[in-house]
Hints:
- This protein is α/β, with parallel strands linked by helices.
- The chain has one domain: 3-Layer(aba) Sandwich (Rossmann fold).
- The protein is built from five helices and five strands, in the order βααβαβαββα.
- Strands 2-1-3-4-5 form a five-stranded parallel beta sheet, with helices on both faces.
- Helix 2 packs parallel to helix 5 and helix 3 runs parallel beside helix 4.
- It is globular and about 40 Å long.
- It starts with a strand and ends with a helix.
- The structure holds 1,3,4-trihydroxy-5-OXO-cyclohexanecarboxylic acid (DQA).
Amino acid sequence: TRILVLHGPNLNLLGTREPDVYGRTTLADIHSAMDARARAAGVIVESFQSNHEGQLIDRIQAAAVEAIDYIIINPAGYSHTSVALRDALAAVAIPYVEVHLSNIHARESFRHHSYFSDRAIGVICGLGAYGYMAALEFALTQLRKS
Ligand code: DQA
């Protein structure tokens, strides 16, 4: 069983990027916490961050070939702009949970709409780095059922 965690642009800067909005936890911290939790459940968790839309699309297309069972995705800025990334997820038809560290609904109005939410199994926002762990816990429960 394999779960792919995708991080969009600027999330490589987590820890130092607007810490009042995104917290002080780094992407490496998030990955190691998710990895430890998944391992304990006998599941492989793979993380991929890119600042490039096409690379994220290529990673999603590859996920279908690699038989990835579940995706956890924070599309970051692409949440509000990318039809192409949305289309890639629809094409591979792998269930996904959308995560945002910040509460996008409490911020600028251009962040209120996400191209990913209506097709997501669920959306978590505003819980900071914990949101990824909540998404992982949910995915593990779903995968155990199937
Ligand atoms: C974000 C919210 C987006 O609006 C923003 O562009 C990001 C991060 C979040 O995790 O809160 O880069 O997805």
